[in-house]
Specification:
single chain; about 290 residues; alpha/beta; Metallo-beta-lactamase, Chain A; 7-stranded mixed β-sheet; 14 strands; globular; binds zinc ion; Metallo-B-lactamas; Ribonuclease BN; RibonucZ/Hydroxyglut_hydro
């Protein structure tokens, strides 16, 4: 037996390119955590997934340049503006005629993102339509809760989340590791909800929407977001190893977020508030089957 399945390229690797929620922010008080809206790179070994196309996808594209694969699978949590407006600015991908960008959307009763994106990326809101862009877009619709099966045999599980118009949570399993993306979500009266608890149970990493503090939350009830405390409650109940809080409130400065992170780590030492460009490597601990 070779050690191939245990070598570094088989790790499950997460990289945050945008961790700000609702709208981007900038300025001297927002340098450490960053200002881009949601975009997360997930690598199952070499295999690439991108979650959300907030403004962070511009930085993602600029970083990887021509090293991006010819086919990019982009999984939308949902289509609110902070999760889609960067799409046309992932330049190395969209300017390449050989490239296919496959989008996946699960919160529209099975419809794809095509119609919504065609409304956004069209004059007068945007100078051209997506079909005028050199790369080819292929839009897939599914129902949150279904498992996505890709042609290379990789599967990604999904879950509907409580959010205005709904959102989709994702679970990636690779080489004995599990990482979940649970954003955007608002906690309910019963917390953690049994289906969510089951979905994230035993995960190595859960990325969770902790946009508001518990003090801010009552004034923002119904807006579709949660708190870091609810993330800790979920991860404790589900035996999750690491918690990464995402979708930071645009007005939360670096100083405030550092303070919140101290409180968070007092409750759960392995938890953190995600920073732009931060990478989390979950080393492979199971042999990956050879491709058939
Ligand atoms: Zn959002
Ligand atoms: Zn949203």
């Amino acid at each position: 037996m070779t050690m191939k399945g245990l070598s570094a390229p088989n790790d499950l690797t997460i990289r945050f390119w945008g961790v700000r929620g609702s709208t981007c922010t900038s300025g001297p008080n927002f340098v450490e955590f960053g200002g881009h809206t949601p975009c997360v790179e997930v690598r199952c070994g070499e295999r690439l997934f991108v979650i959300d196309a907030g403004t962070g996808i511009h930085a993602f594209g600029a970083h990887h340049g021509q090293n991006l694969p010819k086919r990019i699978d982009l999984l939308f949590s949902h289509l609110h503006l902070d999760h889609v407006t960067g799409l046309a600015f992932c330049k190395p991908a969209v300017l390449d005629r050989e490239r296919e960008i496959h989008t996946y959307c699960g919160n529209l009763d099975g419809a794809s993102a095509a119609e919504a994106l065609d409304r956004l990326f069209a004059p007068p809101l945007f100078p051209i339509t997506l079909d005028m862009i050199p790369a080819r877009f292929v839009h897939h619709g599914f129902r949150s809760g279904e498992t996505l099966h890709f042609s290379d045999g990789v599967a990604v599980d999904t879950l509907p989340l409580r959010h205005p118009q709904g959102a989709t949570g994702y679970r990636f399993r690779h080489a004995g590791r599990t990482a979940c993306y649970i954003s955007d979500i608002e906690h309910g009266e019963v917390w953690p909800e049994p289906d969510l608890l089951h979905f994230v149970r035993g995960a190595d990493l859960v990325m969770f929407d902790g946009m508001f503090t518990e003090g801010e939350y009552p004034a923002c009830r119904g807006w579709g977001h949660s708190t870091w405390q609810k993330g800790v409650d979920l991860c404790r109940a589900a035996d999750v190893r690491q918690l990464g809080i995402v979708h930071h409130y645009p007005q939360h400065s670096d100083a405030l977020l550092r303070d919140l992170e101290q409180q968070l780590q007092a409750a759960m030492p392995t938890a953190f508030l995600a920073r732009e460009r931060q990478e989390v490597v979950l080393p492979a601990r199971a042999r990956v089957p050879e491709p058939a």
